[in-house]
Amino acid sequence: MKKSILAGILLTFATIFFCLGIFEISFPHIFAWSELLIDSFPKIYRYSIHIGVTEALLATLLMVFACFLDKILSMKVLETLSRLGLGGMFIFASLFKIQDPHNFAVLMAQYQFLPHDLINPMALMMPSAEFLVGIAIIITPFTKENSILLLFMFFSFIIALSHALFHDLAITCGCFALEGAQDKAEAWTSLIRDLVLLIPTLWLITRKNQSLIQIWFPHKIK
Amino acid sequence: MKWKQTWKHTISVLNWKYFIAIAILTFAFAIVNNLRQSPETKVDWIGGQPLLEETAGEPL
Question: ipTM value of the model?
Answer without folding.
Answer: 0.83
